[in-house]
Amino acid sequence: MSPTVAMILTLAVGTYAFRLVGPVLHGRIAIPPRVQELLSAGAIVLLVALLATGSLTEGDGFAGWARPAGVLVGAVLAWRRAPFVVVVLGAAAATAVLRAAGVG
Prior knowledge:
By secondary structure, the chain is mainly alpha-helical. The chain has helices at about 5-25, 35-55, 65-80, 85-100, and strands at about 55-60, 60. The chain has a domain at about 65-104. It is extended and about 55 Å long.
């Protein structure tokens, strides 16, 4: 067996184990409310960090002002509870208009 196949199988087994742990341990372990709050906050922090790095950087440098502005438009539309298609199209349109205007 090649090392690549072994690594893929290891990752597959690990992923399946993580998915299996939830239903198997449901009801058997009581997680304190404070830990639940910390886990929720941690998930939000990770998503915000991913959003920031994805919207502000391209390669090794700054992505320009058009992309963060488009993300901001999408965030405002999502916050106003616009349909998902409207959020995506609004963010893309804002970015395209700014890039066409030379903002970059």
